[in-house]
């Protein structure tokens, strides 16, 4: 897995530009997702062309907890991966200067997804995602999700930058 780089580390030494925090308004400007499928609440740190650290506040009010699982609510693994992918989408949009362009970041592939611990309501899910490969139309990422500093999930994934479908 690729090392996740945060502000104040090697990225700054290389002259890469750090941003953050980004509030929900800026998150919504970068992503087309809306409730109940918007899974990034805040960006703590974003280093253009390198990495992002974002937060998802996992609340008991989430719709998926009604059925997954009654009596033992656990965030579905697929939604943890989706949250990492949305963080990657913000990283791509900001790094490639796509804000306001109408371009979308589409999920293409997930590799090596591993789920280490269940994610329960009432936690802050920390999403750390880094570019593995960046091209104009296809990007590869390495992501991990943590709760209280403990790894709960990780995955590598690929996304495509494209125009939205025609109506």
UniProtKB/TrEMBL annotation:
Reactions mediated catalytically: a (3R)-hydroxyacyl-[ACP] = a (2E)-enoyl-[ACP] + H2O
Keyword Ribosomal protein appears in the UniProt entry: no
Example of a GO MF term: (3R)-hydroxyacyl-[acyl-carrier-protein] dehydratase activity
Chief location of this protein within or outside the cell: cytoplasm
InterPro entries: FabA_FabZ (IPR013114), FabZ (IPR010084), HotDog_dom_sf (IPR029069)
Gene Ontology biological process terms, A to Z: fatty acid biosynthetic process; lipid A biosynthetic process
Highest taxon of source: Bacteria
EC number: 4.2.1.59
Enzyme class: lyase
Places the protein is found: Cytoplasm
Keywords, in A-Z order: Cytoplasm, Lipid A biosynthesis, Lipid biosynthesis, Lipid metabolism, Lyase
Keyword Lipid biosynthesis: yes
UniProt xrefs under SUPFAM superfamilies: Thioesterase/thiol ester dehydrase-isomerase (SSF54637)
Xref: Pfam families: FabA
Catalytic residues in the record: 68
Any one cellular-component term (Gene Ontology): cytoplasm
Function comment: Involved in unsaturated fatty acids biosynthesis. Catalyzes the dehydration of short chain beta-hydroxyacyl-ACPs and long chain saturated and unsaturated beta-hydroxyacyl-ACPs.
HAMAP family attached to this UniProt entry: FabZ (MF_00406)
Record family assignment: Belongs to the thioester dehydratase family. FabZ subfamily.
Protein name: 3-hydroxyacyl-[acyl-carrier-protein] dehydratase FabZ
Lineage of origin: Bacteria, Pseudomonadati, Pseudomonadota, Alphaproteobacteria, Sphingomonadales
């Amino acid at each position: 897995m690729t090392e996740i780089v945060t502000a104040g580390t090697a990225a700054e030494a290389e002259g890469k530009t750090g941003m953050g925090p980004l509030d929900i308004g800026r998150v919504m400007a970068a992503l087309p997702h809306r409730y109940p499928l918007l899974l990034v609440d805040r960006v703590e740190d974003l280093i253009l062309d390198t990495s992002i650290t974002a937060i998802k506040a996992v609340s008991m009010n989430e719709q998926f907890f009604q059925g997954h699982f009654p009596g033992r609510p656990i965030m579905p693994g697929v939604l943890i991966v989706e949250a990492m992918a949305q963080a990657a989408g913000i990283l791509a949009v900001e790094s490639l200067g796509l804000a306001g362009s109408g371009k979308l970041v589409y999920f293409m592939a997930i590799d090596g997804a591993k789920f280490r611990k269940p994610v329960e309501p009432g936690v802050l899910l920390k999403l750390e995602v880094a570019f593995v490969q960046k091209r104009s139309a296809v990007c590869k990422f390495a992501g991990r999700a943590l709760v209280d500093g403990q790894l709960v999930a990780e995955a590598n994934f690929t996304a495509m930058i494209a125009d939205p479908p025609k109506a």
